[in-house]
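In this supplementary section we document a worked example of the pipeline. Step one takes a protein sequence of length 298 as its only input; no multiple sequence alignment statistics are reported here. Step two produces a three-dimensional model, which step three serialises into structure tokens for compact storage. The input and output of this example are shown verbatim.
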Amino acid sequence: MAIMERDRRSRQKQNTVPIDRLSDLPDSILTHILSFLPTKFSVRTSILGQRWRFPWAYVSNLIFRDDSQKSINRVLLLRKMQKVNTFCLSDDDDRYRYINKENGAQCKKYQIDTDTWITLAVERNVQILHLCYSSWRDEDFLLGLPGCLFTCKTLVHLKLESCGIIPVRVAVCFPRLEKLHLLYVQYEADESLPNLLSGCPVLEDMEPREETKGWKEPPQQVPACLLSHLRIIKLPNIGGEKHEFEIIKYLLRNANVLERMEISYPGSLSSNEENNMLKKISLFQRGSKACKVAFGAA
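The serialised model returned by step three reads:
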């Protein structure tokens, strides 16, 4: 009996056909699942079978990590979805640094392509835009930013890292921008960042890393976002310079609904320097009674 039962189970196992439950899901769920993948992996699902040929083309999130210019252009050409919810472009791989070393045509071609990609995202009502070129941080070549970016009325979260020059003579209109993270960007003039903030009336979360190199003096006018919306400010690498204290004082005094300011300082500071900085900052007037200041080493 035991042998017969074992043979029966063996035959059942051989006759069992694996069930493909994913392929039976509706298109809306498939595209939602694919939206969490980097775009190049989403595109690769098209080889799984007839059912998977086109779902990737309807994904509204475009996440390019170390993708070649050719592959990015091909994806943008073949995709069917008009709307772009998220557009992320990053180059964590050092192999992309060769572009910085080239003169003339190579840099110009990459700049033209990048302008085209950003413009397309803006025209498709992008809400989240991340441009991160961390491996280019120490290079001479710096990507420019198309003017249309600064008047994107649908943008909710903007992150720029090691790319772009923040201009001063440009109209800024970010009526929906809530999060602004600027890491290792360059500023055309001292007024660049204040001018940028003036066009962000509902900004709630700001991280201007290395921002004090481009914002030497507090602006005379107070941007609307400081008065009524800004709730979180992160200020990394504060070294105790006079103009840094002026900026901190200005922000604390005018951010009327600020809930938290996170200040980090270089680990090279002595404990005495750290205590003096903390003591000085604690005496600054605060426009928001609910504001808490977190102070620690980077």
